[in-house]
TrEMBL record:
InterPro entries: McrC, McrC_bac. GO terms for biological process: DNA restriction-modification system. This is 5-methylcytosine-specific restriction enzyme subunit McrC. Pfam families: McrBC (PF10117). It comes from the Bacteria.
Length: 343
């Protein structure tokens, strides 16, 4: 079980904006659950956005007008016989706060109203929604999360990311097509946050090391690469001629069993070994030391891996990261990895 305060710290690394002055007080507050925490972050973020002004974008609008505007929809005008009233159906673009991002925020807040968050936060969110009166209601199941950010809407990046976390964590479709609220943050969402947190921690706290989520290319004997999966690392740390590839895993159960024999998940081990060996071949003509690390979030299982193997000339380790402790202890564990591989 991860303390809620630690989830805030993980979010703070994943979204650096949470380290700004307006958000820091959140770290000292008490929360019933993660939904309550996300509600508090949204309240701060929406308040900040309202001070700047809600973002606007050009939205396509169609209506029947007496004065021509934009493009005339001839077929619809004939169909509805608007000409008899000296009107035409026109389609035009209007600069409006009824943007997709504002719609997502409004829909997310509406859903949080039914979640287990404090009355004070529900009241504050309700007050903020008064400023979203011109924003349309949307179906949460139809949201397109593929959003492009630019200078004009960059301040929405964190807000929309928190909304995504809330929607995917609280919403579940039942077999009859209706929806219900489920336990917040399933394994899949926590895995993404876990990966992002570790990557951003190393970027911020260890600038002497290059930290990226880099792709590794298949080292092929010919040009045939059709249908090969992309080798996308979670975290790749490098300094000088040393490289550490980290595969961050967040599971409810770390070990697999077969006839009462415990072992590391074979697929995870094959994956990190493949990453390491392809990177090794890629750097064959340069001085290099390539290592791999499977870093599991620690569970309450009695048997946990803490092993280091030498495989075909490379160091492959399997360790756990304890998230159920003071954050200073979490940082120490991550720092120890740097000391082991780069000192």
């Amino acid at each position: 079980m991860i303390p809620i305060r630690n989830i805030y710290y993980m979010l703070s690394y994943a979204f650096q904006v949470l380290n700004e002055q307006g958000y820091r007080k959140i770290a000292t507050e008490q929360f019933h659950n993660v939904a309550d925490l996300c509600a508090a972050i949204l309240i701060k973020g929406i308040s900040s956005q309202l001070k700047r002004g809600l973002g606007q974008e050009y939205v396509s609008k169609t209506e029947t007008l007496s004065a021509l505007r934009g493009k005339i929809d001839v077929s619809e005008s004939i169909k509805t016989m608007t000409m008899l009233r000296n009107q035409m159906v026109c389609t035009y673009d209007e600069f409006s706060v009824n943007s997709r991002m504002n719609q997502i925020i409004k829909a997310t807040v509406r859903m949080l109203m039914y979640a287990n968050i404090s009355k004070e936060r529900k009241k504050e969110l309700k007050k903020q929604m008064l400023f979203f009166s011109e924003v349309a209601e949307i179906d949460l199941n139809t949201i397109d999360w593929n959003i492009r950010y630019n200078r004009n809407n960059q301040t929405y990046r964190m807000l929309i990311s928190i909304c995504y976390l809330v929607v995917k964590g609280l919403l579940q479709t039942k077999s009859d097509g209706t929806v219900r609220l489920m336990d917040f943050l399933d394994e899949q969402r926590m895995c993404r946050l876990y990966e992002k947190f570790i990557l951003e921690y190393y970027r911020k706290e260890h600038p002497e090391i290059t930290a990226n989520a880099s792709q590794i290319f298949w080292q092929l004997d010919n040009d045939m690469s059709d249908m090969l999966p992309v080798m996308q690392t979670d975290i790749m740390l490098s300094r000088g001629d040393s490289i550490l590839i980290i595969d961050a895993k967040y599971y409810s159960h770390i070990m697999q069993t077969h006839f009462d024999t415990y072992s590391i998940h074979s697929g995870n081990l094959y994956q990190i070994f493949t990453y390491v060996k392809n990177k090794e071949i890629e750097l064959a003509d340069k001085p290099h030391v390539v290592s791999g690390l499977l870093l599991y979030a620690k569970t309450d299982e009695t048997l946990l891996p803490n092993q280091t193997y030498q495989m075909s000339g490379n160091k492959i380790s399997v360790k756990t990261l304890d998230l159920d402790c003071d954050f200073e202890k979490i940082a120490e564990q991550l720092d120890e990895i740097v000391d082991e591989y780069f000192v």
